Amino acid sequence: MTEADAAGEPAAVLRSGARREPSTHQLRLLVVLAQELHFGRAAERMCMTQPSFSQQIRALEERLGVPLIDRTSRTVGFTTAGNAVLSQGPRGVAVDAPPSSAR
User: pTM for this one?
Assistant: First the structure.
């Protein structure tokens, strides 16, 4: 029996204590990033600052334990794991544009 089983924690809890399930919010951010392919535009679309948006994407990567984004100074690309999350995870994750008054 693992520590997670003994504590009544879901099996998706890693030994380090990190959870494997991404939050709906983090999945929504990943979907918007995939649509925009630009951290700044994706952050603006979600009414967030770019540093906060980037921190949330990094937190998602840490939660899953794999890099999802290939970052360069000019482009945003998705790793194999990132593409897998996008193809499997975002079902049912609605991404609405912010109200026009929010801009």
Answer: 0.69
Q: Which two tokens stand for residue 54?
A: 């980037």
**Contact present, 85 and 22 (Cβ < 8 Å):** yes
Instruction: Summarize pLDDT for 48-65 with one digit per residue, the tens.
Output: 999 999 999 999 999 999
3-state SS, the chain, equals: CCHHHHCCCCCCECCCCCECCCCHHHHHHHHHHHHHCCHHHHHHHCCCCHHHHHHHHHHHHHHHCCCCEEECCCCEEECHHHHHHHHHCCCCCCCCCCCHHHC
Residues in a beta bridge with 13: 19
Domains in the chain, CATH or no CATH each: 19-89 (1.10.10.10)
Kindly indicate the confidence band of residue 91, based on its pLDDT and cuts at 50, 70 and 90.
low
Note whether 66 and 14 are within 8 A (CB): no
